[in-house]
Each structure stands twice: as structure tokens, then as C-alpha cells.
Amino acid sequence: EVTPPEVRFLTMSADVHPVRADWRNAAILKWKAFLNDREEQVFLLLTLLIGALVGLIVVAFIEITGRFGARLYPPDAAAWRRFLVPVIGSLVMGYLLYKYFPDARGSGVPQTKAALYARGGYISFSTLLGKFFCTSVTLASGIPLGREGPAVQVGGGVASVLGRALGLRPERVKSLLPVGAAAAVAAAFNTPLAAVLFALEEVVGDLHAPVLGSVVIASATSWGVLRLLLGNEPLFQVPQYQLVTSWELIAYGLLGIAGGVVSAVFTQLLLRLRVWFKRQPAKTVWFQPVAGGLMVGAMGWFVPAVMGVGYQYVGDALNDSLTLKLMLTLLVLKLVATAVSYASGNAGGIFGPSLFLGAMLGGAVGSVAQHFFPSYVASPGAYALVGMGAAFAGIVRAPMTSVVMIFEITRDYAVIVPLMISNLVSYFVSSRLQQEPIYEVLAEQDGIHLPQFGSRQQTRRQVMQIMQPAGEVLKTGQTLQSAVEVLREPGRRTWIVSDERGVAGLVTREQLERAASSGSLDSPIRAILKAGEFPHVHADHPLDDALDRLGANHVDLLPVVSRANVHQLLGVVRLEDVLEAYGVAMKTES
């Protein structure tokens, strides 16, 4: 009997697909088996690959932004052109961020830390692409933000995408993020040793992290790619400096004080402006970056040096080529322009701007000191160099990285002692005037709560060990009349209230009883919720933190929420469970 053609076709299709699927499944199983046996070797090769790829991407960053920036807004261009280019660039970039790449907004360092500690090491491929292209548009159009922070997120994104594609365990993928971050900083600044310190000091928060070896390898590989393609020229050409007299250390100490004050002013201005922009209606998000473009364009109309990250003018300050008046002007204008540009949502970092601000401040202090004490102080360029480190330490809060970075930039040991003094003083003053580091506050403004480095919480009992399902949750829209019904539950004093975002706050038995006695039972529950952030804990919080918060807020229950989204409810921790964990009280039978 002859089989009809259509039957033969169906038979072939049924036979082919399982074979193809079986082949794919067999390959996946074979790779997983190989990965289980050779995970360390695969991780090492992946570290080298990440370093090379990130080095290439950073070189592309440098070339694209430099070449396009030189053509779009040359210093001798017409004033109207210097105004329109940042406005149009910020408008295009704002639309791209809003429509296609919402996670590519901002610096990149807090986003990388959020991926490491709150998102299981996950950075999407679209975020990687969006960060590269949107930051390129931002910098090429003259917005005065830096490429180094975005490069950190791109480097972490490359590591995350490759690690997941190869099927590494989530713990291994997370450990690759600081590897990519170190590779990015090494190529962006041409400082491989400072890159290692930054990845450990700022991203990981542990100078003794087990990933140290991989971070070193990736940093060296990325630096090698940069040197191969662009040569081994330092970021800035700096003359040799020396300490004229020991009395000069007083001037460097005063520079540290000034650096700490400027760092705190810049940080608080940026953070407060960002809070204001985030309070605006959601429909305005896509064109909010234009506020930064307008600010830069208006300043650039009169002072072209404000546009771009300004490394050329940093080099001029280091070589005593700028006047005191110009340095003070650029210090003020750049501080305001950078704060507005970042707060309004432009894609770019604060690494480069912090070095610029420090160079202008240091050059100004050095010019004043040399005017009054010409025989006792070095040239203003030396103070501009030390000021760069002081501002970086005060703003980024990575003092060890800043010392090593400036040392690698100059390749001169003579500047180390003044640099350490100014950095330490700046770090101390800045941390007193603005207690929370800028990256932690930026993350909190986005609803992400990063862990506190240096604490002992990893060795103590944690909330996750005793957290329970949430149980009944009230809604913000329901009336107080319906909520009062829960008062019939004996032995309970606190209830969670949620809205469309998730957890919105807490209400207590006392609040509901007061509402019932006041006769306002027709009002919604949201009417009695306290404004601002509600009491909560995270799953990795130690139990004594939970106990402190329970007592401070006079409640017997706290919501356990995600670090990546403070409104996402994971469970609850109850006072009786905390006390039982400490052996103080036992749960009573219901």
C-alpha cells in the first residue's frame, strides 16, 4: 500500500522534531556534566573572556563619545549649536530610556550593586545594550556626566549575560558581577590596581572577598586590551610634583576640608533634586532629562567648558593652564549642571564629574595658597591633582580606591602623603555632613535596600529563619467599618495594609479603635496610614534588628519585604516568634 504524500510529510515532521530536541537535550546534559566537573576552569576562562570583552566595549565608549562629541559641539561652534545639541540629545535619550530601556537610567554603580545583592546577579541583555547606547548619546551631546559608572553596569551586564548563558549556578553568576565591574574601571581610567580595589571596596564591600583572584585577572585583561588598542598613555599628562615644605601639609589639610564640604553640597543637591523629579507625574518621566539638557545648553551658550565631562580642562588645571576665576566658575557651574543632569534622569555617572570638581577646587585652593605663600607651597597643579582624590573620596566614599587611582594616574610616589591627608579629611568631613553614602541613598530612592557592609549580620540569626506567611492583609481602599471587624481577632494588634503596588503600611488595633470611636467609619483605611516609609525588615536582617523595630514602632508584627522592591511582601515576622527564637517566651496554643 502506498502512503499518501501528506501522510509522509506529517510522519517526517513527527520524526524530525524529536530527533532535533533529543540532540539539543543531549548537548545540554553533556555540557552540564562537563560544567560540574570543570567549573573552576570554565570560570577562569570566562573571567578572561569578560575582561577582554569589557575592555573592547570601554574602548568603543571612549572612541564613540570622543569623536561624536568633537563634531557635535566643538568649542568654536556657534552658541545656538551648543544650546541645541544637549537639549536634543537629552530628549532623544529620555525617550529611549522611557520606551525601551527603563533599567538603563542613572549611574550604573547602584544598579550593579542592586543586581548583586537584590536580584540574584541578573542584568538583562537589553539593559546592557540600553546602557551603552543611551550613555553614548548622553555624553556625545555634551551632558556633563561620566562614562565610568555606566561602564561598570555594562561590565556587570556582560558578566551576568555570559554566566547565565553558560548555565552557571546563581552564586557563580553573582560572583561574576564584580569581575565585570573591575574590568570596566581598569579600562575606563587606565588604572588596573585601583579597579581591583574599587570592585572589592565599593561593589562587594569586602577587601578579602573570595572573588579577588578573578577580579585581578579580569582587570589585567581589560587593561591589556586598552593598552593594545589605545596605547599606554595615562588618563592625564601630569608633571612631577614634590612637597616643598612640611608646612605645606596644612594647606593640603585645608583642601581636604574644602573637598568634604563641596562633596556634601554636591551629594545633597543631587539627592534632593532627584527626590523632586521622582515626585512628578509618571507621564513626565520621558522628558524630564530635558531639564538637564536645557541647563547645560544655557550654561554652554556662555561657558563652553561646562559641556561634556571636561577631562581636557582637568588636564589644563593639572598643568597650571587655568586662571583662578575660570576654575571657580567651572566649579560652581559644573556642580549645578551635573546635579541637575543626573537627578533629571540622564544616563551617565558621577565618577568623571567628581574628578572634575576636585581638580577645579584643588587648583583654586592652590592658586590662593601660592599667591599668599609662594615660597612654601607647590604649584596649583599639585593641589588640583590632590583635589581630584579628595572629591572622589568625599563623593564616592571609596578612600583607598581614590588614593591608588591618583597614584596610578601620576605614577609618582611623592604625592601619596598629601593625597592621603586630603582624602582622609575630605572623607571624614563629607561623612559627617552627609552620613549616608550617595550610592546607598540612590538605591533607596529606587526602592532597593542594600545591605550594610562591615556588619556582623551574616553570622547572626536572621529573619528568614522565623518568617511566616502573611495571612490576612487589609486593602487601602476598603472602609474603616469593614476593617474594624478584624478587632474581633483575639491577641493580635497589627495588620498589614496593601494597595496596587503591594505593601502600603501598617495599622494597629489602637488606630482602628480610635477611628471607630471618632465616627469616621466611612473613610478608607488609607486615611489613617502614616505618610512616608512604613516599618519593615528584610529576610537577611538579624533578629535583634527586627526586635528593635518591633519595639520602636510599638507593633507585634512586621512585614518582610524584598530588597529589590520594598512593596513586595515575602512574609511576616511576629514578636512572639522572635522571643521564642531567643528562648524568652514560648508560643501559646491558639
Task: Please tell me about this protein's structure.
The protein has 590 residues and is mainly α. It has helices spanning 5-37, 39-72, 79-99, 109-118, 125-140, 148-165, 170-189, 192-204, 212-230, 248-278, 289-302, 311-318, 324-343, 351-372, 380-396, 399-410, 416-433, 438-445, 480-484, 509-518, 543-552, 575-581; strands spanning 473-475, 494-499, 502-508, 537-538, 557-561, 569-574. β1 (473-475), α19 and β2 (494-499) form a beta-alpha-beta unit. It is globular, with a radius of gyration of 28 Å. The model is unreliable at 5-16 and 454-459 (pLDDT under 50).
Element-level helix/strand string: HHHHHHHHHHHHHHHHHHEHEEHEHEEH
| Strand segment count | 6
Q: Please state the average pLDDT score.
A: 86
Distance between the termini: 76 Å
